[in-house]
Structure formats: structure tokens, C-alpha cells
């Protein structure tokens, strides 16, 4: 139920708005002044505010500024009986959604409130799309013919039916644990809500709690405004905790409380907030060993491991290697206009015989590099790197991209892409460790990855 706050110094207006919107099923809160309004916005999860610009001795614009400090994304509709172009423009510049003049009809109020709340929902949906949260299941490339993959897909379909069940996905780095997590989400009744992922190893320990659970204004030095955490953002949907085995023990205890109570508390907050979220976690570590060494809580393991799914490494399902190679060859050949249409028999045999320590991620990177620096129509053994083809290692000069074809800038980008890909593989996709290996700031690495279209 959406929560709406009416701020007006006239009791009749407050009561009228409460009646009209209450009949439509909204929960309506009321305040006669800015101080009361600020207290309510700080204490409650308000979805929309109706604010009178003339609150007796108070200026509604000052109240609007204060509310925006408390909740920067708060949706506010300004209402007044003394409207002017100047006050309308001023309120819109401060972030008001719309401007209404008194007296207003009940139907007009209903329409603008409904539109405003739909806008809030749309904004959340756009953010989710930007995070890849609403990627269609049909676009998740669960490619292969191996019986173990078919069993994993069957398990994903089965657990998707139970919206509360936690899932623990295990497997080596690069095996596709995130794809299985997305598949479970898109097959479930939660598919219309956000799928939000976080790499637990990539966030510093002192920031992870705020990232997951949010914080209140003033909770710490840089907390200039309230922040919604990822658990709240994923409400009604799914949160994917990748590399859960790297989580700090103190943070493990807090996560355990959330799983047990289905409630979170923001950093610096005093009240619990209900969340309805499916938790899917993943790790490439042996959590049994981590429990024995005291690095992972046994009680948390049992909470996470309600439905375990193990993804085998690529070397255990070799019949899928040519299928995956053909999938990525088609994808990147189209992306780079390289005209590849097939893989030679010799190249297929070499690809299938290689052990792929980096699993699917490594295979994808190899095919992507081939499409960047070569032209089709057939991928042959000569296109494969020496560790796969068995050919002697070529000189650094021979390994450089084709400058004549790509130009200097394109060749530099191709070479940089190769270096970053190799470093990510070495670090198991961990961005923080990769940045340390490359001796560059993490922000610089993320910028380059975004520019080059690299996914960790």
C-alpha cells in the first residue's frame, strides 16, 4: 500500500485529501507544519508528498528544501491557493513533480497522484533495467547439450516455483553462476521485480553494510542524506550475493539476522524495515573448508544452502565447448562485422581438448579476441592462441592487433582489452584485485571496462 503525506495548515484540506485518497486504498498521513512533516518523512517510508506552499508563517519552498535533504528522491506535488508562475518555477527547480492550484477537484487529484506514483515505479524500473535486472530469460545464454546442464536448468525451474527459498550456487570462477541466478529469478513469480546483484569481495568491509542495508542521514561523516540499501531496492524481487565466501565474519552475522527475521535496519537507524526478497548466493570457494577454518559461519551456511546447485567446470562437459564457441562466434562476429560463419574441424578439436581453467569466461574472451583482430568466414586453428593450438609462442610484435585494419586507436583498445581480460581471469573476475594487479585505481579500471564493454 502506497503511503502519501499531505502537508497543509488547513484542517479541512487535510481531512478532504485523507478521505479522497483513503477511498482509493492509499495510506494517508497528515501534517500541519514543516517540522511535523520532516519528522514523518524521517520516520516513515513515504511514497508521495502533497505540499501546500502557504503554511501560515512557514514558506512551503523552505519545507520542500528540507524534505529533499532528508529524502533526495522524494516525489512532491505542490498545491496552493495563491499560485504564481514564479512560485511554480521555483518549486519545480527544487525537484517538485507537479504544481496544482486550489481549489482542485477530487478526480483531478486522483489522476495526478496516480500519475506521480506510476512515475516513481517507472524510475525504479529504469534503474533496474540499467543494472540488467529485467533481462529476459530468453536472452540468458544457457547454452549446451550436456546432461548436467539440463539437470541444472531443471533444478532452476523447480526452485523458481518457491519464492522464499534461498539458493546457494557453487562452482569455479567463470562457470556461469550469475546466469543461473538470473534464470531462477526470471522463471519465478518475482520476475517483474528487480534482480539486484553485488560482488561481496569488491566492496570494502566498512562500506558493505551501508551498501546492503542503506544508511540514515548523519550515520557517518559522508552520510549527507538517507540512502536506500540493495535489500530494500530488491524488495519483492531477488538479491544475488556473489562471492559470498569472501564476506567478513561480522557482516555474516548481520546477514544471518536478516535471513532469519526478513527485516533490515539501516546504518544509524533505530527501526526495523520489512523486506520480501529471495536471496541467491554464489561462491567458488569450498565453504566446508571455510567453516572448519573459522572463516565462515556454519549457521549462515545452513541458511543459505537450503537449495544447493553445483555448476561443473567446462572441462567436465566438453561436448558443450563447440556449442558455446559457435554461440560466441556468432555474437561477436555480428558485433564487430567480421563475417565468421563456421569453425573448422581442427579448431573444434583443439578447443574441445583444452582444459579451460577460466571456464566459460575464458572461452568467451578467446572468441571475442579472435573476432576483434581477425576476419571470417572460418575460424581456423591458426586463429587460436598458442596455449590452445599448441603452436610455439609468437613474438610480442606478432601478437599485436592488426593496426592496418583497426587503426592506432582501435589497435590500442584491442590490446588493452586483452590485458584487462587476462587480468580479470587471473583474479577470478574480482575487480578490486584486478585493479591492484594492474596497479591502477579501481575507478579507472571500471571506466575502462565500461568503455571497452567488459563485464567482470
Average pLDDT rating: 85
How many runs of DSSP E, i.e. beta strands? Answer: 18
Classify the fold: give the CATH topology of the largest domain.
Answer: Rossmann fold
Principal-axes geometry comes out as elongated
Unreliable runs, pLDDT <50, ≥5 residues? 128-140, 393-399
Strand ordering within the main sheet: 2-1-3-6-7
Q: What value does the Rg take, in angstroms?
A: 27 Å
Calculate the terminal CA-CA distance, rounded to whole Å.
38 Å
Q: Based on the coordinates given, report the CATH architecture of the largest domain.
A: 3-Layer(aba) Sandwich
Helix content: 40-55%
Output the structural class: alpha/beta
The fourth-level CATH homologous superfamily of the largest domain is: P-loop containing nucleotide triphosphate hydrolases
- Beta-sheet strand percentage? 5-15%
Task: Give a description of the structure.
The structure is a single chain. With 456 residues, the chain is an alpha/beta fold. It folds into 4 domains: 3-130, Response regulator (Rossmann fold); 139-312, P-loop containing nucleotide triphosphate hydrolases (Rossmann fold, 3-Layer(aba) Sandwich); 316-389, Orthogonal Bundle (Helicase, Ruva Protein, domain 3), CATH 1.10.8.60; 400-456, Orthogonal Bundle (Arc Repressor Mutant, subunit A). Helix content is 49%, strand content 14%. It has 20 helices and 18 strands. It has helices spanning 11-23, 34-43, 60-70, 85-93, 106-130, 147-160, 177-187, 205-213, 230-233, 249-261, 287-292, 298-304, 320-336, 345-353, 359-373, 386-389, 396-399, 403-426, 431-438, 442-452; strands at residues 3-7, 27-31, 48-52, 54-55, 58-59, 75-80, 98-101, 167-170, 195-199, 214-215, 227-228, 238-242, 263-264, 273-274, 278-283, 307-310, 342-343, 378-379. The strands form 6 sheets. A 5-stranded parallel beta sheet has the order 2-1-3-6-7, sandwiched between helices. Strands 9-12-15-8-16 form a 5-stranded parallel beta sheet. Strand 1 (3-7), helix 1 and strand 2 (27-31) form a beta-alpha-beta unit. Helix 13 packs across helix 14, helix 13 (320-336) packs parallel to helix 15 (359-373) and helix 19 packs across helix 20 (442-452). The longest helix has 25 residues, at 106-130. It is elongated, with a radius of gyration of 27 Å.
Amino acid at each position: 500500500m502506497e503511503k502519501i503525506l499531505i502537508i497543509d495548515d488547513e484542517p479541512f484540506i487535510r481531512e478532504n485529501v485523507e478521505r479522497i485518497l483513503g477511498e482509493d486504498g492509499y495510506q494517508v498521513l497528515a501534517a500541519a507544519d514543516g517540522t511535523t512533516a520532516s519528522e514523518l518523512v524521517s520516520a516513515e517510508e513515504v511514497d508521495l508528498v502533497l505540499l501546500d506552499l502557504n503554511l501560515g508563517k512557514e514558506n512551503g519552498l523552505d519545507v520542500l528544501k528540507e524534505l529533499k535533504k532528508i529524502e533526495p528522491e522524494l516525489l512532491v506535488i505542490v498545491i496552493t491557493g495563491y499560485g504564481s508562475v514564479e512560485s511554480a518555477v521555483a518549486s519545480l527547480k527544487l525537484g517538485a513533480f507537479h504544481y496544482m492550484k486550489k481549489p482542485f477537484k477530487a478526480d483531478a487529484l486522483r489522476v495526478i497522484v496516480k500519475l506521480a506514483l506510476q512515475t516513481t515505479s517507472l524510475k525504479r524500473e529504469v534503474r533496474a533495467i540499467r543494472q540488467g535486472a529485467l533481462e529476459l530469460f530468453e536472452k540468458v545464454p544457457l547454452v549446451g547439450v550436456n546432461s548436467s546442464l539440463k539437470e541444472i536448468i531443471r533444478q532452476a525451474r523447480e526452485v523458481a516455483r518457491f519464492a522464499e527459498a534461498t539458493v546457494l550456487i557453487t562452482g569455479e570462477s567463470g562457470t556461469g553462476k550469475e546466469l543461473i541466478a538470473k534464470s531462477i529469478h526470471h522463471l519465478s513469480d518475482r520476475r517483474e521485480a528487480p534482480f539486484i546483484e553485488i560482488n561481496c569481495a569488491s566492496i570494502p568491509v566498512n562500506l558493505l553494510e551501508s551498501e546492503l542495508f542503506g544508511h540514515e542521514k548523519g550515520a557517518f561523516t559522508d552520510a549527507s542524506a538517507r540512502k536506500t540499501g540493495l535489500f530494500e531496492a530488491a524488495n519483492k524481487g531477488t538479491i544475488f550475493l556473489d562471492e559470498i565466501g569472501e564476506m567478513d565474519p561480522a557482516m555474516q552475522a548481520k546477514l544471518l539476522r536478516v535471513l532469519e527475521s526478513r527485516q533490515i535496519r539501516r546504518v544509524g537507524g533505530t527501526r526495523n524495515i520489512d523486506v520480501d526478497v529471495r536471496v541467491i548466493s554464489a561462491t567458488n570457494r569450498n565453504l566446508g573448508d571455510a567453516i572448519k577454518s573459522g572463516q565462515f559461519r556454519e549457521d549462515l551456511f545452513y541458511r543459505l544452502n537450503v537449495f544447493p546447485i553445483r555448476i561443473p567446470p567446462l572441462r567436465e562437459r566438453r561436448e558443450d565447448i563447440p556449442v558455446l564457441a559457435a554461440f560466441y562466434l556468432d555474437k561477436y562476429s555480428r558485433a564487430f562485422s567480421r563475417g565468421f560463419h563456421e569453425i573448422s574441424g581442427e579448431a573444434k578439436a583443439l578447443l574441445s581438448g583444452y582444459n579451460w581453467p577460466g571456464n566459460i569466461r575464458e572461452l568467451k574472451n578467446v572468441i571475442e579476441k579472435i573476432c576483434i583482430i581477425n576476419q571470417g568466414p572460418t575460424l581456423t586453428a591458426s586463429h587460436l592462441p598458442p596455449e590452445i593450438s599448441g603452436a610455439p609462442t609468437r613474438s610480442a610484435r606478432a601478437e599485436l592487433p592488426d593496426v592496418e585494419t583497426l587503426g592506432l586507436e582501435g589497435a590500442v583498445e584491442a590490446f588493452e582489452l586483452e590485458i584487462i581480460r587476462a587480468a580479470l581471469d587471473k583474479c577470478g573476475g574480482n575487480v578490486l584485485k584486478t585493479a591492484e594487479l594492474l596497479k591502477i585505481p579501481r575507478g579507472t579500471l571500471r571506466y575502462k571496462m565500461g568503455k571497452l564493454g567488459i563485464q567482470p
